[in-house]
Records
---
Amino acid sequence: MAQQSSMPLRLLFVINPVSGGKKKADPEAFIKNYFRERQEEIHFFLLDKPQQALTDVIKKIKPSCVIAVGGDGTVKMVAEQLVNKDIPMGILPAGSANGMATELYIPADWEQVLTLITRDHPSTIMDIDLIQINGKETCIHLSDVGLNALLVKNFEQRGIRGKLGYALSAFKTLWQNRRMEVKIENKNMHLVRHAHMIVLANARMYGTGASINPDGDLTDGQFEVVILRKLSIPELLKMLFRHRPFDPSKTEILQASQVTISTRRWAHFQIDGEYMGKTRQIQARILPRALKVIVPVTPEAAR
């Protein structure tokens, strides 16, 4: 991350106070302690304040970098503030689901993350694609309609965190779930499918490690539409616990830069782990290389 030698970095840490539930370490205290004897200028913003206030803070302090401290939902909220801006985003994973951090090979260890942000350890800035949904929402990671969105809803209502919560919610979800009749359209395709779930995949895997889009690329100017046509309990548990992809014979994967998805009946919908309610139509388009993210210098991150 480039910086002027005469000026210290000005870092804004955006913290979700409830992200990840009870943790052994308080991220704000950890960050303050790390920078106690360093020259960087640090600021904090807690996400229990109105979203507009974050916009105002970014304009006021003009940070060198904005760091999302939380899970995928926090990453999404910070990313929305930085779309098509020259300010890079850092990710300090502190949520119950940290899929985007995993996707970008960002370490789980907080001290290692801070060494990347301060350039004490080699890092680089990757320009990644985003998906714009219905002209207003930003998807940085994965969105879907159907099965997983219902799982997200059940998981939020159950209140049990971690993989146990996902597993318990999964059984309830499979009992409730029904296949949808779906239209998938753009200028190149007009398809009708019966499916358990339609995924708009900017990335490769969910926060559980479940691989839904093995060949996904965050920088190729396209997203994948993953159509899950058949599913069983063993298949879902294999994804949740063994980090294996879905059986290719039961899925269909299409590439697109723009698509409209219409369901015959109202269907559950989620964006980056946040349940959005029910919908009957989703319009999605790619925003190529619209977000700058600080990542480790690795062959995988540099591809």
Note: The chain has two domains: 10-121, 137-288.
---
Amino acid sequence: MENSLRILIALGGSALVAYAVVRVADLVVRRAGERQPGTPLWVLLRRCRTPLFVLSFTLLLGWALARDDAGAVGRIRSLCLIGSGAWLTVRTASALVESSYARYAGRTPDRARVRRVRTQVTLITRVVSVAVGVVACAVALVTFPSFRALGTSLLASAGIIGIVAGVAAQSTLGNLFAGFQIAFGDMVRIGDTVVVDGQWGTVEEVTLTFLTVRTWDERRVTLPVSYFTSRPFENWSRGGAEMTGTVFLHCDHATPVPLMRARLRAFLDECPGWDGRGWDLAVTETSPTGITVRALVTAQDPDALWTLRCAVREELVRWLAREHPVALPKVVTGQAPHEDG
């Protein structure tokens, strides 16, 4: 009875003291954030409250129950200490990295460079999380005597195991190295507009093994990162977001092309999606049944270009139907006249 009461007192006292430690740390971080409102680090550090509580509680409980810190109880406390320490390390590292990225993004006007750094920061955070997790698992396994006894034999066979694992995980390792190549080779970045496998969309997420593209209809296409290092793809955001697009119309031979060209220019002058860099309208092809008219327009980014192309196509068709219906394409359905004789 006395032992159970002592354990309950130790649990309650450790929880109260750990809660007080977390509250004091949170108050300090909050005051620092109020003194430096432009620094996101203090806001991000507040996410460390839960792992800090678990770590403090485990340490205080181990100190209060030092006499019982043996056997299964001591091993459980060690595992909790290792896990909470790894958790706190990952949260702190993520806060530092994200804070550095936020400051860099706030003072860098080049959006392409910001997207590149964001991709690198994302992968660095994931690598740190995986590395800390692996180290924590290794340290946790060492706490078991059976694993310590097997340490010598495991190290002796590490070479063979490494060769077998490398052959078995060749695809996974290839994706891993491809992820680093994408992040630091500036091939594709989060926020880039790409066309892969006939799918047009925006890069939404880049991990160590896969990449997610959000298409224009809000679908998610997941591809291995090795796809971008082994196959050609279109990146419309490289070298600037400005783009040039075309609109093709099939018309009759009687189409007043000069008037159509003037109408296109008048419409572009009133359209907010046109960036003013360039435009053109020309007959690019002719056939026995009609002509093909190409309208060329420019816009500041792929999304604006898509909207502008649709607006130009709609306006030119409406203008032809209203002002020059004879220019609309015709389908001959009657029979040719036959000569007698």
Note: The chain has twelve helices and eight strands.
---
Amino acid sequence: MPHRSAPVRSKSHVLPHRLVAVAAAAALGATALTACGSSDDGEAESGPVSLTYWSWTPGMDKVVDLWNDGPGKKDQISVTFKKQASGDTLVTKILTAHKAHKAPDLVQAEYQAVPTLVSNDALADISGEVGDAKGKFADGVWQQTTLGTDAVYGIPQDSGPMMFYYRADLFKKYGLQVPKTWDEFARTARTLKEKAPDRDLTTFSANDSGLFAGLAQQAGAKWWTTSGDKWKVGIDDAATRKVADFWGGLVEEGAIDNQPMYTPAWNKALNTGKQIAWVSAVWAPGTLTTGAPDTKGKWAMAPLPQWSAGDDVTGNWGGSSTAVTTDSKHQAAAAKFAAWLNTDPKALAALVKEGGIYPAATAAQTSGALAQPPAYFANQPDFYTTAAGIAKNTAPSAWGPNVNVAYTTFRDAFGVAAKDKSDFGAALTKMQDETVADLKKQGFEVAE
């Protein structure tokens, strides 16, 4: 079943020292990395090539075997897969290995970690090696591996387009309509409270920063951008403040719950119908299967509510790419494998079957194992067709080199604000200020 990638969880992976000029420039997309070109300068290598790939995706060894027994054997490019932990643990390990010039040829990199790896000169620009791969992904997903430049730092592997999940039976019982706008969402929450005070439409949770980031992304936020040779932090921008004020207002008035997700109490709320909807992503069926087993077949999925009627845009919550490192002596060969892994029909079918991912490649989102709905949503045959339509309109994101600091501050500041039903705006300002302060501390130039 589809799953989400683990979010960045700590400060551990950002190097504290001032980055050298060329690495910082690469993070900004201002110049090309000196080591970005393929080590073989695009020329065919003679003799067999052996590559090492670090990834946490379940069943990746079986997918790699397909390459080694097929295209890899023909091209004399063999890949050795080495299972890794995800999140900050892997990023830290990559940076430690890179510091010793011993990073593997290929790594699985979460989208929000790409700028950190690039700013540390750990990822190679493979734009000259990926051919027509760009056209096989939604623009908003592809953009997460380019940092808004012509350079390409990875091939998208999986994604997490966001959508709205709701208890169809309870919506019918209380005469509720599926909200198409966020204003309708707020009215639905209040109507439910009037009709069933013991139930909540949903909860605002601060224990997974990716949810809020995706909602801000849908609203048009760009948290990190560049201005000349400087980073500009826009976490406290108008789009994000609109999102924060909206959810903070609902929490303050008691229209929705303020309890965190993924706890026993939250699972119980979903399983008993105390919470009857959830703003989530395409991987939600897996979470609901384990958290709310008694409600299988009672849920339905719809597009995310929009800020303006008639709009059709979603955010992304989770996902990763396959990247080539600057330490690789065979970057062209590594890029060839990365492209195959994430665009070849057989490879994608195996990734879905063995790894349970939701593929970023659009052609794979309604074929093979995804031709049928998740078992939990057997009552909604068009689940993946609907999901694919939603995914095509994923808004572009804008990540920076210290996402971990922003995420940590979000969990702390918004966690307190949600619990106390206090000002979400103040929490957002703190998130902005601490992110800017950390960039300056690391030695990045920051535009005010």
Note: Residues 21-159+318-374 form a domain with the D-Maltodextrin-Binding Protein; domain 2 fold (CATH 3.40.190.10).
---
Amino acid sequence: MKRTVLTAAAALLALAALQGRAAADGTPAPGAPAAWQPAGTVLPGAATTADAPPMKPGTTYRDTIEPGGTRFYGIALDAAASAAVSAFALPPAGSRVTYGDGIELKLQSADGTDCDTRNAHFQDNGDARPIGTAVSRLITGDHGDACQDANQYTLQVHRTSDGASDPDAWPLELRYVSEPGLREGANESPSPVTTASAPPTPLTAGTPRQAAGGPSFDTAAAVRTGIWKDRVLPGETRFYKVPVGWGQQATVFTDFSSAQATGTGTYVGSGVRLTAYSPVRELIDGDDHAYQGTPVSLVEQLAPVAYGNRAANDEKVQRVRYAGWYYFAVTVHPDVAKAVTGPVPVTLRVDVQGTAEPGPVYDGDARAAGIGVDAHDVASANGTADGSDGHSGALRFLAFAALGAGTVLLLTLAAWYAAARLRPARAGDATVRQPGYGPPGSW
């Protein structure tokens, strides 16, 4: 009996260690939706532009924002580099949110000129998920355009909130990316590249592989052309990143498979969602669909990557102006838990077409800013965030399995131990109770 108890204890300790490792990797205990944990340097935003704290390029910051609140951050820009600044609000799971809730970003020059404005709203009710985008100051080469001068600029982040929505402050994660200017004499065509007119076709050839989507940009699973499978819980958003070079075009189909129905017949509008983001975390496009446990498919086809896309009139083309990691967020609405039991099986059909071309001749290190990918990035895109050959995915699977096995083991041992304690002693029984078993006073 003692050996059995020790074995059970060891098993439970192993389970606890597994769950602790999972938490350290940003993955919650099995059965709980993954959550984006804000990272970076704490940077309290100011209430006015005069007190806006400075941001540095290549740095991630975190802050909080109240309902209806506005925060200001300062950015000093020269007359050569373009800049992109992103902000994401991270409402806790279960937060009350409505269609118009979200955040609105504005980048302004010192004289109050609006350089760029972008909004990100939930566009449905009850789907508390990471939400945000980026604003940019782009150098056009035309000094007659606004916001081209070296000056002090300000990022404004405003949280829109319905009166009945979550009254608590939300964490914010912010990041500033500086894109080097072009080397003097570089001849870069300003002409944008448009998408093909033919509708996209899903990739069907190839053996599916396992992916382990992460709850944030930093923990996103790297996936390349191929078929990838994962599972997403109701109330969860998981991120995947795809390496896309200059001249290449990415298409991602996301199939939300059938799941075990609860029998309630619950119909969830905007039950599943697919959202695409650029390498600087700018929202490109998104789509959603109702879900009630039967198969649904969503697709995002991006424009071919070109430096000249920044001059496009179509905003979806304009935002595909960098080579680099493009992010795809897969979301399952919390109310889907009323329609199905457990996670929703998801298949991502990733198709990056075209041969990578030489990029623009930058006057600086664009890769250090997160712009551009190479053959190594493509080769190491194996469904995990860290190129660990599926270790993260295996850990996640084992955590689900270990939780079930550990629970059964606990219940079995508890029943066994109770039966042994209550069994009457028989004459001539060779088993002798050893000190240390049973409550004090029974030894």
Note: DSSP finds four helices and 19 strands in the chain.
